[in-house]
Design a protein that fits this description.
394 residues; single chain; alpha/beta; 13 strands; 2 domains; three-stranded mixed sheet; Aspartate Aminotransferase, domain 1; Aspartate Aminotransferase, domain 2
Length: 394
């Protein structure tokens, strides 16, 4: 039968993506997030989770979510500014502000919502945004939605950034945007240099610390703490669905900024509040993380063991300094085959392809958590060796 209209158009576009090995599909888990999960009827070693500290399945975290659900219901029922602001939200925001050493904090339903709402609230028409080339998609989309002029600087290239700052009109409102810890490369932004440039050129610095929160710094406060810049960077964004094991995001900063965002951030104003269960879970996860610093110690020990092993096997890894360890492949089809071979060996670490990463930089994105054991790491290394040899990477 002859096909016409939008369905035919989308089928054609999908087939074009498939020919380039760029289509996606869901890979459901049939168990809770842990070092070993149930997938496709098998027990598989998971090396793809952002639950860095193993808090998603922590009994106290789960119990807090249950109790909040029983007391306040499964959902908030409205946006925060209508009738959806509940005690768990307020308690979490107070705890986050104390944790980050700021006057206040504001929570969002997701990191994507936080970024696409906060950036346009901070800067608009007539302003200038300078963003790192490898910023997360939500940051890029937030920049585009702002109506400010938008320029990209080369990844972590502070000289390029400075040249762009020097060319701008004097006293022009400017926002520098970066990830703290880059999610696909595992490297850190040069925050000391970025902070200095922001001060020298009277610009503001916006940091998405989604993957740094709970992981980086002596107390897990993020990349700003890692560099000793806690008091020099006025506001920071981070997520609650990674190291804190639940869902949502936060913006921490001066109380005047938080009050301003409550009145101007469209993704906050026009979104139903996060479920009370997720807020309560994060508050408990934050307490557990601070009470049990050994979780971060295990995380970093596992990271060193796996990174060292992959390097010794001869894989080409990015300049990662974090629990995110991308194995660079290049070709999307080869990356997919590599991931399939890993799965056959009992390890799940998916292929990451464009547009998530730039063209010709497809990779296997490996992540490790505090809950992996030495035997898990050894099993993974054996699987990587066999799968890597099968596709000619080592």
């Amino acid at each position: 039968m002859f096909k016409v209209g939008p369905v035919h158009m989308f089928e054609k576009r999908f087939n074009e993506l498939a020919a380039r090995h760029l289509t996606r599909r869901l890979t459901p888990l049939h168990s809770g997030v842990g070092p070993v999960v149930e997938m496709a009827g098998r027990h598989i070693l998971l090396l793809a989770s952002n639950d860095y500290l193993g808090l998603a399945m922590h009994p106290e975290v789960i119990q807090s979510a249950i109790e909040a659900t029983q007391r306040f219901g499964a959902g908030a029922g409205a946006a925060r500014l209508i009738s959806g602001s509940l005690p768990p939200h307020q308690e979490l925001e107070s705890a986050l502000a104390q944790f980050k050493g700021t006057e206040a904090a504001l929570t969002f339903s997701s990191g994507y919502l936080a970024n696409i709402g906060t950036i346009p609230a901070l800067i608009g028409l007539g302003g200038l945004i300078l963003a790192d080339r490898l910023c997360h998609a939500s940051l890029i989309d937030g920049c585009r939605l702002s109506a400010a002029d938008f320029r990209i600087y080369r990844h972590n290239d502070t000289s390029h950034l400075q040249s762009l700052l020097a060319k701008r009109r004097r006293a022009r409102r400017t926002l520098i945007v970066t990830d703290g810890l880059f999610s696909m490369d595992g490297d850190l932004a040069p925050l000391p240099e970025l902070s200095r440039l922001a001060q020298d050129y009277e610009a503001d610095l916006y940091i998405d610390d989604a993957h740094g929160t709970g992981v980086m710094g002596p107390h897990g406060r993020g990349t700003a703490e890692h560099f000793g810049l806690d008091t020099q960077i006025p506001f920071q964004m981070g997520t609650l669905g990674k190291a804190f094991g639940s869902s949502g995001a936060y913006l921490a900063g001066p109380s005047t900024l938080i009050r301003y965002l409550m009145s101007t951030n469209r993704s906050f104003i026009f979104t139903t509040a996060p479920p009370p269960s997720s807020a309560a879970a994060v508050a408990t996860a934050l307490r557990v993380m601070q009470r049990e610093p050994e979780r971060r110690a295990r995380l970093w020990a596992n990271r060193e063991r796996l990174f060292s092993g992959l390097t010794q096997l001869g894989f080409s890894l990015s300049h990662s300094v974090s629990p995110i360890m991308p194995i660079l492949v290049g070709n999307a089809e080869t990356a997919l085959t590599f991931a399939e071979n890993l799965f056959a060996e009992g390890v799940y670490a998916p292929a990451i392809r464009p547009p998530t990463v730039p063209d010709a930089t497809s990779r296997i994105r490996v992540t490790v958590t505090s809950e992996h054991t030495p035997s898990h790491i050894d099993h993974a290394l054996t699987a990587f060796q066999r799968a890597g040899q099968s596709v000619g990477l080592i």
